[in-house]
Design goal:
- This protein starts with a helix and ends with a helix.
- About 35% of the residues are buried.
- Helix 6 (about 110-120) packs parallel to helix 7.
- It is mainly α.
- About 50% of the residues lie in helices and about 0% in strands.
């Protein structure tokens, strides 16, 4: 029986990685045992994706276009995995912040609402916001004056500077 070069390479690859990447049950078993196995699976099923990110949220980086359910599972395992979620929805951003407000550092250009949500939980998270709005700065300093040490005063309007002087 002659096998084609493609079939031979597939068998060799399967033998090398230890499971058949086209067999759902084998993929699921492999990912449950070693989550990192997901990177060898071209089009993993939802179940395989969920099993991987439940073991390690950072494995979401190997999943193309993860569903919202997979994204939430990754965040539940590790809120910092938001760094690997492209264009996270508002719900996904809030889920990350609810787990850990310091996750804001991995949200690109967070809206003022997201910034306010982060500092509502932990004023110190302002240090991880690259460009906090003046409203966010005022709110953080109003409730915890020591936070001013994390604020770039030079970039603020005169009005905001006056408000901060009053608050501190």
């Amino acid at each position: 029986m002659n096998i084609t070069e493609t079939e031979y390479l597939k068998k060799a690859k399967n033998k090398l990685i230890g499971f058949d990447i086209e067999n759902e049950e084998e993929c699921l078993a492999a990912v449950k045992k070693y989550g990192e196995s997901i990177q060898f699976i071209k089009n993993p099923s939802e179940a395989v994706c969920l099993a991987a990110v439940k073991r390690n949220g950072y494995l979401i980086q190997f999943i193309k276009n993860p569903s919202e359910e997979v994204q939430l599972a990754a965040l539940n395992q590790n809120s910092y995995s938001i760094r690997y979620i492209e264009n996270p929805s508002l719900e996904i951003q809030l889920a990350a912040l609810n787990q850990n407000s310091y996750s804001i550092q991995f949200i690109k250009n967070p809206s003022e609402g997201i910034q306010l949500e982060a500092i509502k939980t932990n004023k110190g998270s302002i240090r991880f916001i690259k460009h906090p709005t003046e409203k966010v700065i005022i709110e953080a300093v109003r409730t915890k004056p020591g936070i001013i040490k994390y604020v770039n005063i030079d970039s603020l309007s005169e009005t905001t500077k006056e408000i901060l002087v009053y608050l501190v």
